[in-house]
Amino acid sequence: MSLVRRAVGAFVHRAYGAIRTAGAITSATPAGHRFGRIGAGVSIAFPPGAIFGEHWIEIGDGTLIGERVSLSCGMGPGQDLGPGSILRIGGSCSIGRGSHIVAHESIDIGDHVFTGPYVYITDQNHVYDDPDIPIGRQWPRNSPVSIGSGSWLGAGAIILPGTRLGRQCVVAGGAVVRGEFPDHSVVAGVPARLVRSYDPARGWHSPGLAALNRPA
């Protein structure tokens, strides 16, 4: 019986591996042809998450996108979002499994950006201007998002509308980020704040410690 179970198990694993390979989206597959641009060496792992608005999505060469990652433009399939791309992911990026990137106006992700799993990036959020209308029924507000090349986003980080991260930034796991942060920033917390930064003269340093050590 154990031999039969081992044989069946081996077959199931081999079959699932073959399904994952066949189901991956690349520049050579029919699903890849729906994208505005999908570069050489790109692989979107199977099974994918919700993917729609592909015509407005560009993905640079060599980028790897994990299982169950959702990539979307607009409120739903079939919208006309204009002539230009809305979601742009650079080359040689790695997007962790279960992440969601939801674009409505403009999301730019630079080259060599890595994320942990379950990261959420969006350029749209609901508003609560009218206290008498359910928040989910109030028209949402957009604000472009930019993530600089070489950055790392830890597991479960949330990047909210209007965020602009410079180059080589680190976002701590679970951080909720909104606002502008310069190159070589480390941000953490809810809401996220600058906890470390870098300059050639001083190296990595904490802004808080720098303020404490400043002469009176």
UniProtKB/TrEMBL annotation:
SUPFAM superfamilies named among the record's database cross-references: Trimeric LpxA-like enzymes
Keywords for the protein's UniProt record, in alphabetical order: Transferase
Alphabetized InterPro entries for the sequence: Hexapep, Hexapeptide_acetyltransf, Trimer_LpxA-like_sf
Statement: the UniProt record of this protein carries the keyword Transmembrane helix: no
A Pfam family recorded for this sequence: Hexapep
The keyword Transferase appears for this protein: yes
Domain of life per record: Bacteria
Family membership noted in the UniProt record: Belongs to the transferase hexapeptide repeat family.
Protein name: Sugar acetyltransferase
